[in-house]
Amino acid sequence: MAGTFGDITNPLDKVGSGGYGDISTGLPAFISNLLKVVFIAGGLYAFFNLLFAGFIYITAAGDKQKIEKALYSINMSLLGLIIMVASGLIMGIISFLLFGSATAILKPKIVGPGTP
Fold first, then answer.
1. Are the C-beta atoms of residues 64 and 50 closer than 8 Å to each other?
2. Which of 11, 34, 47, 65 pairs with 2 at a CA distance of 20 to 30 A?
3. Which 8-state DSSP code applies to residue 7?
4. Over the stretch 26-73, which tens digit does the pLDDT of each residue have?
5. Percentage helix, strand, coil for the chain under 3-state DSSP, each rounded to 5
6. Residue 69 contacts residue 55 (beta carbons within 8 Å)
7. How many C-beta neighbours within 10 Å does residue 46 have?
8. How far apart are CA 50 and CA 91, in angstroms?
9. pTM > 0.90
10. How many CB atoms lie within 10 A of CB 40?
11. Which residues fall within 8 angstroms of residue 5, CB to CB, at 6 or more apart?
């Protein structure tokens, strides 16, 4: 579909011929996309929380309570980012040790009725 700003294509065509409808590609692709959305949302939340805490820190004007609140928020945002990165790293290591591929957990192969 051509538009003012460019062409728009259906993203489900990239998942497979049937989109999310096929059991061998649909559910793993859905789980992978869901994990990506969770990581992106968590990263954006931490980023905006860091910006807001930095603004509070800059505008604290020597108020010790505001400074402590801002530093606590900055520390917790950075800790959250570290935990997100560490969880992805641990998931990749466990996946590599168990399945021989670091992305095996992120792109599972689900065998169900009707699959060869």
1. no
2. 34
3. B
4. 666 777 778 888 889 999 999 999 999 999 999 998 899 999 999 999
5. 65, 0, 35
6. no
7. 19
8. 26
9. no
10. 10
11. none
pLDDT band for 75, please (50, 70, 90 cuts). Answer: very high
109 φ/ψ sector (left φ>0, alpha ψ -120 to 50, else beta): beta
* pLDDT tops 90 at residue 79: yes
Apex CA 83: angle with CA 46 and CA 65, to 5°?
50
- Cα(69)–Cα(25) distance, integer angstroms: 46
Among 1, 7, 28, residue whose Cα is nearest residue 115: 28
The CA distance from 114 to 116, in Å, is 7
Torsion of CA 63, 66, 68, 74, to 10 degrees: -140
Q: Which two tokens stand for residue 45?
A: 């939340």
C-alpha atoms less than 13 angstroms from C-alpha of 30 in its C-beta half-sphere: 11
| Rg (alpha carbons) of the chain, rounded to whole number | 21
